[in-house]
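Second opinion, please. Pick holes in both lines of this record:
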Amino acid sequence: MTTHVIDDLQARGLIAHSTDLDALRAEIDAGPITYYVGFDPTAPSLHVGNLLQLLTARRLQLAGNRPLILVGGSTGLIGDPKESGERIMNSKETVADWVERIRGQVSRFVEFGGDNGATVVNNLDWTQPMSVLDFLRDIGKHFPVNRMLARDVVASRLESGISYTEFSYVLLQSMDYLELFRRHGAVLQTGGSDQWGNLTGGVELIRRAEGAKVHALSTPLITKADGTKFGKTESGTIWLDPELMSPYAFYQSWIQAEDSKVGEYLKQFTFLPVEEIDALMAEHSERPGARAAQRRLAAELTTLVHGEDETRAAELASGALFGRGDLGDLPESTLAAALREAGAVEVPSGTPLVEALISSGLADSKSAARRAIGDGGAYVNNQRVDDPELELGAEHLLHGSWVVLRKGKRSVSGVQVV
């Protein structure tokens, strides 16, 4: 028996808020339905938070429903208000470029053929031709100011100040839902829980303007074990664009998932059956050191975002850096990405190993570096080194310039010899 998509979303912990889950279930059963999720081009790439929304859209499509993927050519010019302060507006040319980049990214996660094929839409198409007077008369009249002031993000900014531009963002996003309801028959909008006020704003606008009942559903904020937002690493945001974050770095961000959260991430970010995930987590609890759950998570997500070839390269690099494979088998691009992610620095040819260990962050002093070498815990290209006077030369270079350094079993870095 096939699991209902609503039950699957609930089992995976993917429903934080919903307007009327029973009514939505009934409409899907009578469907299929058309639904949408939107992305504002406020950066040149989508990130891991956006990925959760794309995968949720994919789950609904696999259940037979039709997705609309909105790229916000107009809302991206404004920016959803943040509690931290006013957004910096990007130029129209920059936003237009980011729209096209993101359009290409979202196209990889949904299917475009068949009866329920996806459609990518741009809200600039209906916002740009509208006059200010029409916007105020047709949209603005449905939004009581007292309710807009009560929104959490607005209330938090009243003392420090919020521009009318950002204050009005909810009107633009709500109008998107109204337009997609009219043009495509959309009856569900999904998004993150931080968008709940905007999602319900659209539901209310359609009720007021059309007298129709539609739905909204939000996914929870994805967090680490300490409650902080997931999706940030020491080097920055987990981007989907390989030019902003290498596939190896993307893979490593999932390998490093905390034991207490990896089961949650497997349910939310992969298409593995829940029963299979539960079995994998039972195995993980018996042998957490093997990190089988993290390795499966990293493989599934890297394949989904970057493809099987990049996943194999990342797996090979991850093993080779720690002595479980041949460094010579790694393509230079993969080795370079892995070492840069590990903190590699440039050093001149002939640099003493002691100084290279310090420069790469594997030792904090010459005495600590010499001690590591003397204790048998220093490695150059996975070969143990016992000579504290060793200098890095041509014989140590991989692909003509790279050297992998390791201290003990787990601390890896490297240098690029120039």
In short: The first strand starts at residue 17 and ends at 18.
